[in-house]
Amino acid sequence: MAANGSSCEQSQRRPGPKDKLNGKSTDLSVRERRQKDKEERLSLVLWKRPIITLNYFLLETIIKLKEWTYELWHRRGTVFLFLVLCSVFSITYSAEGGHQQYVQYLERKFLWCAYWVGLGILSSVGLGTGLHTFLLYLGPHIASVTLAAYECGSTDFPEPPYPDQIVCPDDGGLEGSISIFSIMSKVRLEACMWGAGTAIGELPPYFMARAARQSGADPDDEEYEEFEEMLEQAEGAQDFVTRAKLGVQHMVQKVGFFGILACASIPNPLFDLAGITCGHFLVPFWTFFGATLIGKAIIKMHIQKLFVIITFSKHIVEQMVSLIGSVPKIGPAIQKPFSQYLEAQKNKLHHAGGSRSADDNWLSWVFEKVVLVMVCYFIISIINSMAQSYAKRLQQLRHSEEKTK
């Protein structure tokens, strides 16, 4: 009995210092293993291991296609309804009649909106890195409309060719009749659609964290792992990045809708963390997405629009060109092509399909190459990210096999 009692006492005793030490060493070994696996995955890039990276990318692509096909099959009722609607629209689109003018108008508007929504999604979706579509597409579009409005004295550009090409109307207004608000109204649709696209691109981190929290399984995302580690290390955090992340997390968690709205209404590279936080704490979908949509598509976009329009107003541009010329030695040489480029743009606004000058071609060539480089980098980052995702699948499979042994 004494032996049984002592054994029972030993089995029910509290964990001692030795047990705590073993627990800490186990946690440390797990973190070391995760860090080692992470370093191994990050080394899987095209410029270091191109063959393995491309192989893993193709395998991950096949797996994703299978998963999407499986999901569509389970939602075949919705897919069938979508196909029926597409068939009805196709018949309406191809049938002759007086409705064709409305169909063509809706088609142009739909494609225009879908174009900017797609660019917005590409800007914020978590595929390793975002394509900076505001700097590459929306910002230059707003700038060109601003310059044209001041030159033409009107925003009533003939449609078509607008928006593919801007041409001053024959009965142009007075230069002084153009205001910032009239230009903002002209580009409001595309800017809001782009902002809505960025809001849609923020949904994957939210759904990932929400599913991980509800299932109780280990989340298959490094951002979520970093989020949990940040919560563990919240006490005594000193570095600026950790404190900034904690600030976003606390604002979203405590303030709710208005905290999300505040984070979404300003340029915020840490907003992915807001999505993960909302998913982790099971914030309702419409609370998160509604605040994100209002913040990004309305408040933030009006701030960004206003900044671009003011920057490219006629008198500001003329001052910038004159400041370039005041730079010692190289200023006049740089000022000349910019002045000629602006003059060529002004002339082109008054002549549809006008010829392009050599300086216009030179600057356009530079911009096209910058866009090409950034798009190529974006595609490469997607390939690397998907290859690393497949490598993570292999690592998880290896670890699960080690546990069963």
UniProtKB/TrEMBL annotation:
The chain crosses the membrane at residues 77-95, 115-138, 251-267, 273-294, 306-327, 362-383. It comes from the Eukaryota. The keyword Coiled coil does not apply. Keywords: Membrane, Transmembrane, Transmembrane helix. Residues 1-10 have a biased composition (Polar residues). Residues 1-34 are annotated as: Disordered. Coiled coil: none annotated. This is Vacuole membrane protein 1 isoform X1. It comes from Austrofundulus limnaeus. The gene is vmp1.
